[in-house]
Fold each of these.
Amino acid sequence: MMFTPRPKQKDILAYHGGRMGISAVPGSGKTQILSLLAAQIITSGRLEDDQEVLVVTLVNSAVDNFSIRVGELVQEMGLLPNLGYRVRTLHGLAHDIVRERPDLLGLADNFQIIDERIADQIRRDAAQTWLKTNPGAILSFLNPSLEESKLDWVNREHIPAKVSEIALAFIRYAKDRQLDPLEITSRLDRLPVPLPLAQMCAEIYQSYQQALIYRGALDFDDLIRLALQSVQRDESYLERLSYRWPFILEDEAQDSSRLQEKILSTLSSVHGNWVRVGDPNQAIFDTFTTASPKSLRRFLALPDVTDLDMPNSGRSTRSIIDLANYLIEWTQKSHPRIEAREALVLPPIELTPPGDPQPNPQDDPLAIHLVDQKFTPQEEVQFVVDSFRHSIPGGPIYESAR
């Protein structure tokens, strides 16, 4: 597998230790570079036989991708694959940490982890129970001009799902800040004015947690919270894990939550070798979790962090890159909402350098169409599908929805 790094990528591959942050634009080759960096560390002789490079990424499919790439690179460098590295999602890493020492948390050795489908059902049941126990309590949150004939339909078809959705965001926020239901209730009781929506969520949170305790189970957010508690409670356990993983490489760092970032910061506090790669302008999960790209930006600005970037993208044409860069500049200088001007940051996206093995596609400015129509998510997917029908007459139709 021949790979010629770009000039900016060479700077990253010169890494020998310490904390490093990398701003990587879409299509810049961050998976390849992180994989190659991991392979370099493994084959450099800096690891003991019982040590590993820890690679942490966002989703399970990326775990497989990294594992394959690192294994192939290590083998090309003359060593056996599948040795000297561990690739995990952050939840997978948290599971490893909690499962190894459940006694630190008062958990049974056979504790269960429920998947999101079961967690959603437990939370929906808790929301339904709250609604039945508090009839009419939700009316104060509805539009007072809502017709009586529609009220029953709204209560039946929309309110339960919306209450469950709000409770999900509340519970995730609470667990990310290590707040249990009793602590939240105590804080609400001390407030000078009532917050009925927060009180509703706190009661649903308490019912949800009681259901988990009854099952002897944890959800994925509990894993993150308890993993951090494990390494904070036992210094010898933290030292053992830090020794096991003397180098931590983190992918998609812009989508790490506050607790996820804290776990990796704690694990790397002993040896200080932590590389974070992400795109500060591309947060995938900040709408659905407590993640925020601002955390990565703060990390990049720390005085002891080596701040590098990978601005070259071979994925798009010049016109698309110019449009994306214009959006960054317009947002920073001209967005009508002042608070939104910090939403996008530099560096701008750059074309690949001359002679690059992944050159940019041939430019076609006329292929860009700006649509000012407001779509629902379903309408947007249909619009994209229809555009393929028109652009590829008689050809295959590729449908993609995220």
Note: Residues 395-402 have pLDDT under 50 and may be disordered.
Amino acid sequence: MKYKSVIVTARGGPEVLQVVENDLRPPEPGEARIKILAAPLCAPDITARYGQSPFIPKPPFTPGYAVIGDVDAIGEGVTSVTVGDRVGALTAYGAYAEYLYWDADQLIPVPETLDPAEVAPLILNYIVAYHVMHRWAKVKAGDKVLIIGASGGIGTAFLQLGVLVDLKMYGVASKSKHHILEEYGATPIDYHMQDFVEVIRQAEPDGLDAVFDGMAGDYIKRGFSVLRRGGTLVGYGNPMSVAGMFQALGQVVLFSLLPNGKSAKYYSTGVSRINRRIFLEDWATLFKLLEEGKIKPVIEAKFPILEARKANELLESGQVIGNIVLVAPEML
């Protein structure tokens, strides 16, 4: 039997994405074979395709940072899941496919009652926002925060989770997307026409409690400048290269050493294998919030998995608010 996947054939734009056939093999010992139901498009998918991320594979490779699906088969020695289980995985690569082979012990239990397309953004975008807010910045009710990149998949997760904590939120986004920020009570700042540093200093002269920076680069320094004494900046944006990664980490370390009571941190989901228990607890919390209707991912569009090229073209258009999700044909 065969199955299809989408591969990056060379560095470049959506045109380098190509559908290929693969042999559907039995899973190896310790593996589970997952029939993919949904996979969110994520910013790292794009930067990996262009070669703008540290430690990325060389083409050809299958992109896709997260999946939701059903266990289709298990390999020898697997006891953590059984055939038919609904699961998720934080993959980094491999999600643009009809099937995925994955370490069974690294799978995430997912309630079958939830819509896979809505669960998919929780695996990366919402876990980033939840961790940055609650485990790194440790926000509390009434805190004043700035979300840099507030209209995308992670940005809208911040907005929804921020409402639950009763944060006073400011968000940086283009003018055409301000309505989504206002929907969640955030004050929008147009990065094309306004300097967010000036806006924040006028609106909050005592400074902010936290800044969530998804853009990196000079946004780290500028975001740090609007913190109050005791405030925290958490960066999570793609540093674009190994050199960029060391530069961002260097900035974070330097700013944290300054004698002004402020702190800076840099978040990465790479610690998910090290702190697996915490990740599983927090994914379970997010699944519960989705089940209770307290959060609901903003989904701009859904595409069949094998139409990933069209989905990537839309994502790169700059017009997307929230998430794009690839789904199995039967999920449309």
Note: The chain has a mean pLDDT of 93.
Amino acid sequence: MVGNFARTAEGRARRSRIGLATAAAAGALALVAGCSSGTGGSSGGASGGAPSGTLRIAVSSADASDAAFRAVNAAFEKKYPNVTIQFSAIPNNSYQAAKSSRLTAGTVDIMVADPMQVPSYVPKSDEANDALSADYGLFLDLTNEPFMKNFTPSLLKSIAYNGKQYTVPTGVSYYTGVYYNEDMFRKYGLTVPTTWDQFVALNTKLKAAGVAPLGIGGKDSWPAGLTMLAAVQGQYPTTADKDQLAEGLWKKQVSLTDPANVKVLQQVKQMYSWAQPNFSGVAYADVPAGFAAGQFAMTPDGTWDTPTIAAAVGSKFQFGYFPIPTSENAADNANLGGKVDLSLAVAASTKNKTAALAYLSFFSQPQNYETYVKLSGTAPAEPNIPASPFLKAISQYTGTFTPAWDTIWIANSKSGAAASFPFNYAGIAPLGSENVTAAAQASEKDWLAGF
């Protein structure tokens, strides 16, 4: 399953919460709101009775979650043979645009959404598309639906919008770590590092042995950004640290050229230097095969990709996962940054409200949800659902939930592209053409251009 950052970075965005870019987009949302009931009603008739007809589901695509959804879909259609599911797994780069157009056209019933409230220091004009959609009444209010009680209350609280539940969470993912080849670590006498100096020494030893330390899919840009998120996680390890950084940037009390923030890009540059040759041309989808073939010892990725990694590796070797330790203080590296994963909303304009709500109810039933969890590799969003052996093995890093930077950061829609995240990882060579100093200066310039 693709990460929150990934969806934001390529419009994957997985959700940087950038506001609507044009008045036309806002107008389209308003138009749909006017055509819908605005109160969660169905344009195709009242809910109730046995589910039937066509149910249109559109999600942002990833191999593991796609397979998990298809398994749940097949079980749902077996239980409700009068329902036909039209399932669309849309490439992440084009998902947001596709969702917007399908909402406007009224051709989607269930979709991925993430309405988030902006802090007081962020202008309402930078409220994200999904938040605007919720404001306009484009999503059904699911707060009082009985199936919501199946999910962990604290998790639901974390995704509430204006005190209401508009989405059903599918799980939790972590993505500031690396998968590593345990057999290769044993061969070269390596142990899991807990500080940046130890990580540097480990990578130096691998390179000296002729082994590429990291496998990065730079062709899609965003996977390289996972190194940036890991660097931020170590430099700003707590939620309060990240909140303070975000507020400081928005209030122009903090600069992206400050030493602590330049250090983030310095670490990104260092990790790029440990990547496999020509990584900027390697697709994210090709990395698991390279990892399985022993082309590199580690790969930065999210836990959503565990089923894909496991399928590629098979019985060739054992693999594990640890946080990329970007702080010199081991305690700062003790927790993985994560997020509530894909969340499902129902379009208020749905022509099949009965089937849509029946689907979410079916999805949330523990036996069906457990199927989804097993196939998707996500950490459970419901209590008493067993985690996978892999997730149990990394439980020491997930006991205290720490949101990753991209779930806190809100970009300024008036700022330039170099300040989108706002650390300019994509400007650093070989993804871009700049050195660390120039990349930091470009992000600061683009950031201040929005004020």
Note: The chain is about 40% helix and 10% strand.
